[in-house]
Every structure is written in C-alpha cells, then in structure tokens.
VOC family protein (Savagea serpentis), 280 residues
Amino acid sequence: MKNFHTGEATFISHVHLNVSDLTKMVQFYENVIGLHVLEQSANTAMLGVGEEAFLTLHAPEAVKPKQHRETGLYHFAILVPTARDLGVVLRHFINLKIPLGAADHIVSEALYLSDPEGNGIEIYADIDSDMWTWESGYVTMSTLKLDHAQLLQLSEGEAWNGLPEGTKMGHLHLHVSQLEDARQFYETLGFQVVAELPTALFMSTEGYHHHIAVNVWNGTNIPTPASETIGLRGAVMQFKNNEALEEAVQRLREADFSVSTAQNGYEVKDPSGNMYWLKG
C-alpha cells in the first residue's frame, strides 16, 4: 500500500476545532475516539496517537454556537492502518452503543459519527490502492453497505487500547458556498479532481482517492461562520518541502488569492472562508 500522507503528496496533517466545553470534548476524544492528550493548557488540548498530534481543540472565551446552513466542516477523517484496526474500533463503538453510519466506498471502509458538539467524524481504513479502479484520471468510488461481520471477524480477540500507532489525519470534507470557486482554489494549490458529483468534488495529490472533498449540501451562496464559532477553526496543509510550498503560494498570489505569512509558513482561506495553514 502506497503512503499518500508523506513523500511527494500534499495532504491535511492536522485539524483545529473550536469547542465550548473543553473538558467534555477531551474526555470524548480520549474515551470514545481513542486519542490521547499530548499537550494541554487552560484553553487548548492537542491530541493524537503516539507522538503524532493531528487534532487540536480550542475553547475561545467568547465562543459562538454552531449555526445551520453555513460553510465549514462536514467531517474530518481519521485513517487507521488496517481493516483489522477498523474492526477493533467498530467493536468498541458497539460496546459503547454509539450511533453510527457506515459505508464501503470501494477504495475504503468507513464509520461515521459526531462528537458532542456536532462535528462530523469519519474513521476509516483504506483498501489496498492496487485494487482501486482508475479511468481517465478519475477513481471509482461508491457508497455500499459495509460488511460489519467481516470487520468484526478480522478483529476478533483484539483488545481496545485506543487508536493504534500509525493512525493519522486522512482527509478533510467541507461545506462550501460554490463548487467552481472551490475547484479553482484547490487546483491552484495543486490538487486534482479525481471524482465528482453534481454537488461535490473529491480532490487529491499523487493518486489518492481524496485528501480534500467539498460539497454544497448545505446549499449554495451560504455564509461563512462568525469568528470563534464552534466547529472548524482551520487545518494544516502539508507540502513535501519548502520549495513546493513557495511555488503553491506564488500560484495563489498570481490567481489573486490573499496569502499571509504565518508561523512556519503561510495562511490562506478558501473562497468559502475555510482557513488553512500552509507548511513545507
């Protein structure tokens, strides 16, 4: 299986969320999702697996409630190394009686749930990329019934000890205001559309099924959330090196996107107001 989250790829390495109840949310992400706290202060908590942090929770003093029909997070997706690992997660969720969605996407197998503040979460395992079907630059994906029994059989006898080593942020799926504006922005960054619906785009680098997806399922011409609203605060977009980063920033500026210097890189918002920190 090729690693699509290192090397030549550009990918989402870290997601930041605004939350209202930091204590409750940390407990959820530790006890239900299986992450552990790597750093914590009065208003933030950085979580991950092993020594790799990929989710940070922020509790702004004047946090605003999440609104419906706005741009922002549809879900962030945590990638576990194997189908066996996903089976362990599934059994854990069943034991906790967690309400779940699930699907076989042909390229991956996925579980879906929400955290206590309404943020969508996907936990998934990729099917070997040698088994994916490509035609004219597009990958075949679908939404089929997940074989729960097979996953549980694969993981039989495996104890739950949180998410396993090698787990990482797999992809990010966003609500946007206009698909074509989003297409232009992400293609300028170097992503390719590898699957699309009339209402959604799936984009990647280096032949992944998707590192980023966008949809207009909340409607078109929808507003951007107010600052410090519960939900997506921003995400880190990781480039293979500083040269690739600088080239992407130059393309953005030539296309009249506003890019600012930030700590160890740059920051930019997509046309729907979703924030990225760009790093090389």
User: Anything to note?
Assistant: The CA atoms of residues 105 and 143 lie 5 Å apart.
